[in-house]
Please model this.
Amino acid sequence: MIKICQKIHLKNCVDIAYSQNCISQHNCAYCASTKNSIFTDFENLIDDSMSLIVGYFNYDDELLGLFGFYFNHFNNWVDCIGPFFKINYDQIVTQNMFEIAQKTLINANRFNFYFNIKNRNTHDLMLKLKSTKRDNEYILSINRKDYIPLKNSINIVNFEDKYSNSIISLHDDSFKDIYVTGQNIVESSGINRKIFCALNSKKEFVGYGILAFNITTNFLCAEIFAVKKEYRNMGYGWSLLNQVISCGFNNYNCDDISLVVDKLNTKAASLYYSCGFKLIVENESYFYESNL
Ligand SMILES: CC(C)(COP(=O)(O)OP(=O)(O)OC[C@H]1O[C@@H](n2cnc3c(N)ncnc32)[C@H](O)[C@@H]1OP(=O)(O)O)[C@@H](O)C(=O)NCCC(=O)NCCS
Model:
């Protein structure tokens, strides 16, 4: 039987997701890796009237599988978390769980899927749903001990309101199809993001770099970088990245900083490798546009 999970199912949902998500073949990259973080995220899914977890139960009402759906209120996109099965993956059940989510989340206009390249079941589901493939993404990470701070001659400053419009227009020009807008970024400055701006010799804005942080989960991410086209290949991106890394390691009790880069964005990837980032995992990324 397939039904929407309630608070009483939370612990079982977390146990199944935690046990399955660490296996590459079953991994969903939207799912957190620690049990506490999964618990917090799943509790939010159940509490939020726009998000949900769909469960698959046997006749004894024992939970056998689940599929989570996080509704993003900024853009009406839904991040799909799972599916996770206690024992055997079931494609038909997965499709039925997804259909229930589609019918329930009537305001959703897009469902995103993001999973380890070794997860063949979700890959096959994407083909079945005729989802749109996006570029694969690399997760890179740098450890504190691998970072060698080098002297930086470029003027990098902390975010101030006067740079807001420049950041918004550079961001929205550079990234057409991304989970955050320039406006979101500027509004989240100091809350869960620290923004740095690169200035040219005339102290004009030429680019920005973002350190995203979550103090509760001890997570740091060198999230987004962009430099105006006419100033690229002059070392601005490198300086922004170094500032972001230094800030992360100097101000937070965290040994690793991660980031996500599109596989085909070789320019950005080579910049990250040059500072000491290493490849951790390759994920597939798809989206499905609801037509119900
Ligand atoms: C990716 C991006 C931010 C890079 O910025 P940039 O200012 O052009 O990059 P840089 O000039 O700092 O780096 C260029 C190269 O010089 C190297 N470099 C620059 N300064 C250096 C220094 N002081 N010491 C050592 N290496 C340096 C970098 O490693 C990089 O190596 P490469 O030649 O193999 O590419 C820029 O191309 C951009 O805005 N792209 C569009 C948006 C985007 O894709 N962002 C990334 C995803 S979030």
Summary: The chain has two domains: 2-130, 141-283. DSSP finds eight helices and twelve strands in the chain.
